[in-house]
Amino acid sequence: MQIETNNPLIEEILLQWKECIGDNYDGYRGHVYRMYNFCLVQHDCSEEEKQKIAIAACFHDIGLWSAHTADYIPPSVVEVKKYLSQQKLEQWSEEIGLMVEFHHKVRPYKDEKYPLVEVFRKGDLVDFSFGIFNYGVPTDYVRNVKRIIPNAGFHKFLFKGAIEWFSKHPFSAPPFMKW
Fold first, then answer.
1. pLDDT at 90 over 70
2. pTM over 0.70
3. Backbone angles phi, psi at 66, to 5 degrees
Protein backbone atom coordinates (compact mmCIF):
# COMPACT_ATOMS: atom_id res chain seq x y z
CA MET A 1 0.00 0.00 0.00
CA GLN A 2 1.50 3.25 -1.20
CA ILE A 3 1.66 6.31 1.05
CA GLU A 4 1.01 9.57 -0.74
CA THR A 5 2.97 12.53 0.64
CA ASN A 6 2.71 15.05 -2.17
CA ASN A 7 -0.58 15.55 -3.99
CA PRO A 8 -0.69 18.59 -6.31
CA LEU A 9 -4.34 19.36 -5.52
CA ILE A 10 -3.79 19.19 -1.76
CA GLU A 11 -0.67 21.35 -2.06
CA GLU A 12 -2.47 23.94 -4.20
CA ILE A 13 -5.42 24.23 -1.82
CA LEU A 14 -3.44 24.26 1.41
CA LEU A 15 -0.96 26.83 0.10
CA GLN A 16 -3.87 29.28 -0.24
CA TRP A 17 -4.55 28.82 3.49
CA LYS A 18 -0.95 28.80 4.76
CA GLU A 19 -0.97 32.33 6.12
CA CYS A 20 -4.37 31.90 7.77
CA ILE A 21 -3.36 28.60 9.42
CA GLY A 22 -0.05 30.09 10.53
CA ASP A 23 2.06 28.10 12.99
CA ASN A 24 -0.31 25.12 12.72
CA TYR A 25 0.24 24.74 8.96
CA ASP A 26 2.70 21.82 9.05
CA GLY A 27 0.59 20.00 11.62
CA TYR A 28 -2.63 20.47 9.67
CA ARG A 29 -0.94 19.56 6.38
CA GLY A 30 0.26 16.32 7.99
CA HIS A 31 -3.23 15.58 9.33
CA VAL A 32 -4.72 16.16 5.87
CA TYR A 33 -2.26 13.74 4.26
CA ARG A 34 -2.58 11.07 6.95
CA MET A 35 -6.37 11.02 6.80
CA TYR A 36 -6.24 11.17 2.98
CA ASN A 37 -4.11 8.03 2.97
CA PHE A 38 -6.34 6.34 5.55
CA CYS A 39 -9.35 7.04 3.32
CA LEU A 40 -7.67 5.67 0.19
CA VAL A 41 -6.62 2.44 1.87
CA GLN A 42 -10.22 1.74 2.99
CA HIS A 43 -11.87 2.30 -0.38
CA ASP A 44 -10.91 1.47 -3.96
CA CYS A 45 -11.20 5.03 -5.24
CA SER A 46 -11.64 6.33 -8.75
CA GLU A 47 -9.61 9.42 -9.67
CA GLU A 48 -12.73 11.55 -9.14
CA GLU A 49 -13.24 10.10 -5.65
CA LYS A 50 -9.58 10.81 -4.82
CA GLN A 51 -10.12 14.43 -5.83
CA LYS A 52 -13.23 14.67 -3.67
CA ILE A 53 -11.41 13.22 -0.66
CA ALA A 54 -8.44 15.55 -1.22
CA ILE A 55 -10.69 18.62 -1.35
CA ALA A 56 -12.71 17.56 1.70
CA ALA A 57 -9.53 16.76 3.61
CA CYS A 58 -8.11 20.22 2.98
CA PHE A 59 -11.25 22.00 4.15
CA HIS A 60 -12.68 19.74 6.86
CA ASP A 61 -11.13 21.64 9.81
CA ILE A 62 -10.40 24.96 8.09
CA GLY A 63 -13.07 26.79 10.11
CA LEU A 64 -10.78 26.51 13.14
CA TRP A 65 -8.68 29.21 11.49
CA SER A 66 -11.07 30.96 9.11
CA ALA A 67 -13.71 31.58 11.79
CA HIS A 68 -11.62 31.15 14.97
CA THR A 69 -14.27 29.06 16.67
CA ALA A 70 -14.74 25.66 18.29
CA ASP A 71 -17.96 25.41 16.25
CA TYR A 72 -15.81 25.17 13.13
CA ILE A 73 -17.76 22.73 10.98
CA PRO A 74 -20.34 25.18 9.58
CA PRO A 75 -17.66 27.66 8.45
CA SER A 76 -15.62 24.77 7.03
CA VAL A 77 -18.63 23.71 4.94
CA VAL A 78 -19.06 27.30 3.73
CA GLU A 79 -15.40 27.49 2.69
CA VAL A 80 -15.40 24.17 0.82
CA LYS A 81 -18.59 25.07 -1.03
CA LYS A 82 -17.13 28.45 -1.95
CA TYR A 83 -14.03 26.70 -3.31
CA LEU A 84 -16.13 24.22 -5.31
CA SER A 85 -18.13 27.08 -6.82
CA GLN A 86 -14.95 28.92 -7.80
CA GLN A 87 -13.65 25.73 -9.44
CA LYS A 88 -16.96 25.13 -11.28
CA LEU A 89 -17.47 21.91 -9.30
CA GLU A 90 -20.87 22.74 -7.81
CA GLN A 91 -22.09 19.22 -8.71
CA TRP A 92 -19.83 17.93 -5.90
CA SER A 93 -21.05 20.42 -3.29
CA GLU A 94 -23.66 18.24 -1.63
CA GLU A 95 -21.41 15.20 -1.24
CA ILE A 96 -18.27 17.05 -0.16
CA GLY A 97 -20.32 19.29 2.10
CA LEU A 98 -21.66 16.17 3.82
CA MET A 99 -18.14 14.73 4.10
CA VAL A 100 -17.05 17.85 5.97
CA GLU A 101 -20.26 18.21 7.99
CA PHE A 102 -20.29 14.64 9.29
CA HIS A 103 -16.60 13.88 9.73
CA HIS A 104 -17.10 13.91 13.53
CA LYS A 105 -20.31 11.90 13.49
CA VAL A 106 -20.19 9.36 16.32
CA ARG A 107 -22.40 6.79 14.60
CA PRO A 108 -21.82 5.56 11.05
CA TYR A 109 -23.18 7.60 8.16
CA LYS A 110 -25.52 5.26 6.30
CA ASP A 111 -26.76 7.04 3.18
CA GLU A 112 -25.69 4.70 0.37
CA LYS A 113 -25.88 7.56 -2.13
CA TYR A 114 -22.65 9.00 -0.69
CA PRO A 115 -20.34 6.23 0.54
CA LEU A 116 -17.38 8.63 0.71
CA VAL A 117 -18.98 10.37 3.70
CA GLU A 118 -18.46 7.26 5.83
CA VAL A 119 -15.00 6.56 4.36
CA PHE A 120 -14.01 10.12 5.22
CA ARG A 121 -15.43 9.92 8.75
CA LYS A 122 -13.42 6.78 9.39
CA GLY A 123 -10.25 8.20 7.84
CA ASP A 124 -10.35 11.21 10.13
CA LEU A 125 -10.95 9.06 13.21
CA VAL A 126 -8.07 6.73 12.34
CA ASP A 127 -5.73 9.72 12.44
CA PHE A 128 -7.37 11.49 15.38
CA SER A 129 -7.22 8.31 17.48
CA PHE A 130 -3.60 7.56 16.51
CA GLY A 131 -4.90 4.34 14.92
CA ILE A 132 -6.73 3.06 18.00
CA PHE A 133 -9.85 3.08 15.84
CA ASN A 134 -8.54 1.61 12.60
CA TYR A 135 -11.60 0.26 10.75
CA GLY A 136 -9.55 -2.52 9.23
CA VAL A 137 -6.65 -0.30 8.19
CA PRO A 138 -3.62 -2.52 8.87
CA THR A 139 -1.67 -1.54 11.98
CA ASP A 140 1.62 -1.59 10.06
CA TYR A 141 0.17 0.80 7.50
CA VAL A 142 -1.01 3.21 10.22
CA ARG A 143 2.41 3.03 11.86
CA ASN A 144 4.18 3.72 8.54
CA VAL A 145 1.91 6.64 7.66
CA LYS A 146 2.52 8.17 11.09
CA ARG A 147 6.29 7.66 10.67
CA ILE A 148 6.45 9.13 7.16
CA ILE A 149 4.01 12.02 7.70
CA PRO A 150 4.91 13.75 10.96
CA ASN A 151 2.31 15.00 13.40
CA ALA A 152 4.14 18.34 13.80
CA GLY A 153 2.14 19.19 16.92
CA PHE A 154 -1.32 18.80 15.41
CA HIS A 155 -2.71 16.60 18.18
CA LYS A 156 -1.18 18.91 20.79
CA PHE A 157 -3.03 21.81 19.12
CA LEU A 158 -6.30 19.81 19.24
CA PHE A 159 -5.73 18.81 22.87
CA LYS A 160 -5.15 22.45 23.84
CA GLY A 161 -8.41 23.42 22.13
CA ALA A 162 -10.26 20.60 23.91
CA ILE A 163 -8.98 21.74 27.30
CA GLU A 164 -10.15 25.28 26.57
CA TRP A 165 -13.60 24.03 25.48
CA PHE A 166 -14.16 21.73 28.46
CA SER A 167 -12.88 24.28 30.98
CA LYS A 168 -15.66 26.62 29.82
CA HIS A 169 -18.31 23.94 29.10
CA PRO A 170 -17.59 20.98 31.41
CA PHE A 171 -20.96 19.31 30.90
CA SER A 172 -21.49 19.95 27.19
CA ALA A 173 -20.35 18.02 24.17
CA PRO A 174 -18.27 20.14 21.79
CA PRO A 175 -20.38 21.71 19.02
CA PHE A 176 -18.54 19.83 16.29
CA MET A 177 -19.69 16.42 17.55
CA LYS A 178 -22.59 14.86 15.64
CA TRP A 179 -24.57 11.88 16.88
1. yes
2. yes
3. -70, -35
Is the CB of residue 100 less than 8 Å from the CB of residue 117? no
**Separation between Cα atoms, residue 126 and residue 46, nearest integer Å:** 21
Task: Give 110's contacts (C-beta < 8 A, 6+ positions apart).
Answer: 118
CB of 109 closer than 8 Å to CB of 117: yes
pLDDT at 8: 98
Domain-located, residue 3: no
For 57-73, what is each residue's pLDDT tens digit? 999 999 999 998 878 89
CB 149 within 8 A of CB 33: yes
List pLDDT tens digits, range 101-110.
999 898 999 9
Give the DSSP per-residue string, 55-97.
Answer: HHHHHTTTHHHHT-SS--HHHHHHHHHHHHHHTT-GGGHHHHH
In a domain, 176, yes or no: no
Q: Please, is 34 exposed, middle or buried when counting C-beta atoms within 10 Å of its C-beta (0-12, 13-18, 19+)?
A: buried
Please check whether residue 87 lies inside any domain of the structure: yes
Q: What is the CATH number of the domain that holds 149?
A: 1.10.3210
If one counts the domains in the chain, the total is 1
